[in-house]
Write a structure and sequence with these properties.
Blueprint (H helix, E strand, L loop, with lengths): L6 E4 L8 H11 L4 E4 L5 E2 L2 E2 L12 E4 L3 H4 L3 H7 L3 E4 L6 H9 L3 E4 L2 H6 L4
Parallel strand pairs: 1-2, 1-5, 5-6, 6-7
Antiparallel strand pairs: 3-4
Amino acid sequence: MQNSRKTIVLGATPRAGRYAYAAVQQLLQKGHEVIPLGIREGEIDGLPIQHGQPMIDDVDTVTVYLNVAHQRPYYDYLLKLRPRRIIFNPGAENPELARLASAEGIEVESACTLVLLAYGGY
């Protein structure tokens, strides 16, 4: 098994048909520490979905499932967390935030977290 990577799933939702929901499940199954962060109350496989902008230490990856308009309130928050990387999933690509993150030394990737997990590229 690969090393565990503390991952925030930004845009987590309790709706089972959504990609963010599946990402939380797959990350857990692969042994990663997951922090679901979203706007809806609920849980995913027993993990409560957190709200707001909680300060979390030692974040390796933020995987983004929010569209660009909903990402703006999180810019400063994400940069303060200083994750090693931010993954923009399909439909969440954001050149502005990618540029800001890169300028702070944060790795930026436009990719599908589910595909990365399925093929060992996470």
